[in-house]
């Protein structure tokens, strides 16, 4: 009886410790990862660097996390499935129209640069890192990849020109599965034992057909589910509640199935599946876009922390001088030289070639592949097998830090970025919105006036205001807006419902606190009986400032004006004076657009630009004193 009680107590205690370890793991990985993402967004830092540092602290540093030991043999397969989701997310962004618009530069980076970088990286590993030839070829195959887990977050936080961003995006996503398969093939060749008669073994001869079959099978597994999704959707045979779960299930299924054929083939299948969905134009993908972006942030955050935390402390002691020399040779010689040779005669400017030649951060795929193949080589007794993992992780850490912090300054120095000033887009070219755009433009703030009516835009263009003739609710309009991305939007057309549609479409990209529309009328702002807040933007100004009201004031001689604050003034003082406060601009930081729905009042400071709608010179009364329409 006593023994049974002791056993039950011990079991309960073990379960309690497991629950505690699980809670600590979730807090460190999920909580710490999302906190690092927020800090990176708030202070404009590379999130990957913070996540990498967090993993080093929780893992080799403090010894709190031991993912490999805790999860066991399922750790690397789970990492592989998570990476498959990430490359699928990247595949959704690979529209073939962008490939055509980016010229042959993308083709050079995905077809020519990879084998050149492989050869150069292998030579550097042998002659600089002093690795055996077989291990050198494996190292070169692993480091040709530029991970989308690193590149895509960097692109998300940097306003690169679309053409340059397309170069990095396509290279990272397309080369990722190819490099994983290449590393697998090299590993199989290294582990093949020669035949008894000294000739070429049957296994060596079979590698070619095996590679061909795995590639074709992966492409088919990626395309077929996309066609099936489109077929079912077009015939109303797929309920909306099952669309996204079915797509995500297909991602995991095809990746796992293809990995059974060849390690790394699952990444190719997931990439092809994403590309097929994007280019087949399956309806209802907007919901998937939002969900996969959110899931992508969580997955990337957790993976970086887990993989870095899994590094043993002994690995840090293996970072010898040859390995560090190899790291810097790959960064400063191999990559730039490989890009230079592969883009000779291409339609890329020297600034683009220099930038792409430097920016090549390695990420989770390189780490995961290195961890698996390094262990297999070491267990097989292959010389130099134990050096693969420290060499690859030294390169990952160096590229994350140096490329993460240098991407924005280098792009700015080469003039490959858009303006760092907060940008404003105004939808609807009419008399008063054109006047507003002109005032903002004259203050040196990027502004874009968007409309589908050419004569109204031509008048604005005469004042030097950048214009865009497009329908923002169309695919063309969204792609055109990517070339001149905005941080804030004002929908200023006479149609309140259309304004709401535009704001609802742009809110997930810009943020719901950054899309505004002229008031649809006081009655329509009722939270219960009026327009849903999710179906419209924040009201511009007061609830009574509808389009007709502002337009009538403009017809009476009211005009927009701006001035620079010389001292701190309370928002209430600005609102009580003559004129109507529209926005406060803090150059290089943010634009505060006045709205009655603001939860926190603005705090204008000296140096801020105040934009107001002012009455004609003889008049002094504020329109707030007069009646406003409902």
Automatic annotation (TrEMBL):
<dbReference type="InterPro" id="IPR038770">
    <property type="entry name" value="Na+/solute_symporter_sf"/>
</dbReference>
<dbReference type="InterPro" id="IPR006153">
    <property type="entry name" value="Cation/H_exchanger_TM"/>
</dbReference>
<dbReference type="GO" id="GO:1902600">
    <property type="term" value="P:proton transmembrane transport"/>
</dbReference>
<feature type="transmembrane region" description="Helical">
    <location>
        <begin position="354"/>
        <end position="375"/>
    </location>
</feature>
<keyword id="KW-0472">Membrane</keyword>
<feature type="transmembrane region" description="Helical">
    <location>
        <begin position="134"/>
        <end position="155"/>
    </location>
</feature>
<feature type="transmembrane region" description="Helical">
    <location>
        <begin position="74"/>
        <end position="94"/>
    </location>
</feature>
<keyword id="KW-1133">Transmembrane helix</keyword>
<feature type="transmembrane region" description="Helical">
    <location>
        <begin position="106"/>
        <end position="128"/>
    </location>
</feature>
<feature type="transmembrane region" description="Helical">
    <location>
        <begin position="321"/>
        <end position="342"/>
    </location>
</feature>
<dbReference type="InterPro" id="IPR036291">
    <property type="entry name" value="NAD(P)-bd_dom_sf"/>
</dbReference>
<dbReference type="GO" id="GO:0005886">
    <property type="term" value="C:plasma membrane"/>
</dbReference>
<feature type="transmembrane region" description="Helical">
    <location>
        <begin position="387"/>
        <end position="405"/>
    </location>
</feature>
<keyword id="KW-0406">Ion transport</keyword>
<feature type="transmembrane region" description="Helical">
    <location>
        <begin position="295"/>
        <end position="315"/>
    </location>
</feature>
<feature type="domain" description="Cation/H+ exchanger transmembrane">
    <location>
        <begin position="39"/>
        <end position="412"/>
    </location>
</feature>
<keyword id="KW-0813">Transport</keyword>
<feature type="transmembrane region" description="Helical">
    <location>
        <begin position="22"/>
        <end position="41"/>
    </location>
</feature>
<dbReference type="Pfam" id="PF00999">
    <property type="entry name" value="Na_H_Exchanger"/>
</dbReference>
<keyword id="KW-0812">Transmembrane</keyword>
<feature type="transmembrane region" description="Helical">
    <location>
        <begin position="268"/>
        <end position="288"/>
    </location>
</feature>
<protein>
    <submittedName>
        <fullName>Na+/H+ antiporter</fullName>
    </submittedName>
</protein>
<keyword id="KW-0050">Antiport</keyword>
<feature type="transmembrane region" description="Helical">
    <location>
        <begin position="207"/>
        <end position="229"/>
    </location>
</feature>
<feature type="transmembrane region" description="Helical">
    <location>
        <begin position="48"/>
        <end position="68"/>
    </location>
</feature>
<keyword id="KW-1003">Cell membrane</keyword>
<dbReference type="GO" id="GO:0015297">
    <property type="term" value="F:antiporter activity"/>
</dbReference>
